[in-house]
Amino acid sequence: MKQSDIEAARAVAFRYLGYSARSAAEIRSRLARNEFADEMISQVVEELRTAGYLDDAEFARHWVQDRADRKRYGRTRLAAELNRKGVDRDAADEALGAIGADDEARRAMEAAGPRWARIDPASLDAAGLQKEKARIAAFLTRRGFGWDTIKKVLAALVENSG
After folding, report:
1. pLDDT tens by residue, 17-64
2. What CATH number labels 3-53?
């Protein structure tokens, strides 16, 4: 292992981290794509961890907070995204555990509200109302919200519009 190769791997890793926070798996993948040797990748990742530039638990906490609030995603979608980013299950579970049921319901309501506002429930028959509720439920499911949360949100939307 040449020193210049290690420095090149560090430069790639730091440049990649410069765009946004990354998980250790993302750094490994990026370095592997640049065809650095496995032992060099492991060394650089460990150096980044030791220096405090790489912390999957902290990454997961920030990722969940940002995506939950900005994108209004539910736990299921957030867990899938963390899994794709290579964050280990314990760190993901810890980050997702910080989301309370009330926060989850509030975000689901914020996500569904604008879609529901385009509907005039009073002008719909029972079948039409059911169809619109199904569309909102499907939207919230794609956003990663659980059925219990979706039921509460739909009930609140119908109650507040009537």
Report:
1. 988 899 999 999 999 999 999 999 999 999 999 999 999 999 999 999
2. 1.10.10
